[in-house]
Amino acid sequence: MVARHDLTTDEELKAQLLLVRRGTAFWSRKVNELTDDELDGPTLLPGWTRRHLIAHVGYNARALTRLVQWANTGVETPMYSSPAARNAEIAYGATLPPRALRHLNDHAAVSLNVEWRDTPDPAWAHEVRTAQGRTVPAMETVWMRNREVWLHAVDLNNGARFADVPTEVLARLLREITNAWAARGTDPGLRIQVDGSPVLDELGAGAGRECGPVVRGDLAAVVQWASGRGGHRLREGADVLAPRWL
Predict the structure, then answer these.
(1) d(CA 72, CA 15)
(2) Are 116 and 86 in contact (CB under 8 A)?
(3) pLDDT in tens, 34-81
């Protein structure tokens, strides 16, 4: 049998697909390390057990698959019919037997990967709409999934750390978060400084100024704080409250 490969010839997109496949493998490894009884344990997300989180990540793969199918066929297929339907889906998924929950996680990821693999170059530029109402090219689904699997692997509360997340994912996350604060006007003049990063200048609404709260640490620690997951690893600014991101 001849091996099948990505149809895209875009080298940057191929690199992002490789990254998301690495992230999917990392996420799945952390899930598979859990016993069935441990699926009932808490995550780092308030109110969610590991069951809720695994269901969420599985159904997210299905939702992104719908967007890629939209790009490939031209037939509009929204991520979710409504926010209420999305929440109900996660609540239902959390009640599945362990074997079914694990199957959901694995099968949904495979289906998404196949849809990406079979997407030709022109379709990657076709516009689709996210659950938040943003209109984006289909290639944005790769970043959306990268963010999902790497970040939630940490949230699974099974030993994964922000330091395990690739630098390029952390850097893009930090820019995305600080841009979201700027767009909403919720940044109180923060000066965010990343130690040891040659590509990230001072970030935040207070960047380049002499006053304003300073948050400082390595990239993993700063992203952990900025994403609302605690600032205890920061070198400075652990008591500064991060504005809401999502």
Answers:
(1) 21
(2) no
(3) 999 999 999 999 999 999 999 999 999 999 999 999 999 999 999 998
Instruction: Provide mean pLDDT across the span 85-109.
Output: 97
Instruction: Go through the domains of the chain in sequence order and give each one's CATH number.
Output: 11-160 (1.20.120.450), 167-226 (no CATH)
Give pLDDT tens digits for 5-26.
899 999 999 999 999 999 999 9
CA distance 119 to 123: 6
